[in-house]
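Researcher: We're teaching a course module on how sequence relates to structure. For the next exercise, students receive a sequence and then see the predicted structure as tokens, so they can try to spot secondary structure elements on their own. Here is the exercise chain.
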Amino acid sequence: MPLHPDQSNAAELAGLVGPLGNLPGPRYAALARRVRELAAVGQLPPGTRLPAERDLAAALAVSRVTVASAYRLLREQGHARTRHGAGTVVEAPGTEPVWTTPSTDPAILELAHAAPEAAPQLLPAYREALDRLPAVAAGHGYAPGGLPELREAIADRYTARGLPTDPEQVVVTAGTGDATALAIETLLQPGDRVLVEHPTYPGAVAMVTAAGGRCVPVAVDAGDPDAMVRAASVAVRQSSPRMAFLMPDFSNPSGARLSAAGRRRLAATLWQQGVLTVVDEVAAELYLDDGPLPPYAAGLPDAATVTVGGLSKAVWGGLRVGWLRTDGALAASLGAALGRRQLSVGLLDQLAAAVLVRDLDAVLESRRALLRERRDVLLAELAARLPAWTAPRPRGGLSVWCALPPGSSSAALVAAAAPLGMVLAEGRAFGTGTAFDDHLRVPFTLPAADLRTAVAGLAAVDAALRSGPPVRSPARPVTVV
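Model: And here is the predicted structure for the students to work with:
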């Protein structure tokens, strides 16, 4: 039975918590974990007043410092707060993704966003684009839907990968996220359900929510990626989603990659059930150990999918050029919707993108080599300094999805790392509700020296959190802009 919000009976709460000595990790962390678990199942509803530190310490036969440290950890994680005159009360952590804007401070180790520095081909591409600019500068400067030469280059790229495409099926957008938002905002109706991987990219969840949609999460596991196919089939029958958002190649953050057979089965299931699939291919060609697989949309009717892609990961996040590829009629409709909010992506950027798409094999070859080296550095550092963490070896993509030891919290790690000049995204950002606080995504997009520094900092924070009272957060939050 749930405790009454005004109830603060230490003996009753101690009975619900149970013996702390049987739980892994320091006792304060174990107590905080049990309070979180009791809150998650409704036995400690939001607003429940927790017992005074001295009373709960006596009931649990632990020190008052242990209880005080547990309460402090709960406050840092967003699971409790102190009310004037009412003590410490249970708080439901925010359900909005815990996300930050990328930092431009060179003194900050930016690990919240998986974005490497510019590829060496970027500047030569812009020089060539400047040479071509006079040919288009005499006109009005708008290219609704995208420059013809860029759309042709993108279409040829899809065709070479096994997905025959005409330029009329391509719409150029201001980045991959813009393409995803265009599809969701235009095609989703309030109340529609959207099947999403769990964990998944936080931006997609935010877009669905903003459009009035409801996410239907389906568990995805990099150790058994095709298990998601079976789970999705069940979810489709039970929930009847209107749309699905998938990252079949090196899903963010799990790194899962559907097999060729798995993606064929999933694609067929969703199409047969009338589910339109938005496919994010931003990492599709960032394979590090394996080779290419057919695009998810290959073999399907063109209207079954909206495939989105871009150059932010392969080339540079500052090059805001993305695209979507779908059926010609649907592409025209989406292009018209895009035109109502922006007439065109910048022509100089599109000219440079056309050069880069034509040369994308060379760009990707150097990018993969760089990411492969940095991935191996990160994994070696994690194994040496944080052996209790589980860090699966991703076969592609840009990050490692680390499982933390029992009793650990990514929210606490992120808060404690901020004063050390490290910006991270806590695990909850990648789920719906409060899931994945026991995970942390660590990108391998920084130079090797920075990765070593970052893991050393994480190891220090982890040790402090596990061996004593939590590392104090700064007096005021670190502002990341």
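Model: If you want an answer key for the exercise: The chain has 15 helices and 13 strands. Residues 469-481 have pLDDT under 50 and may be disordered.
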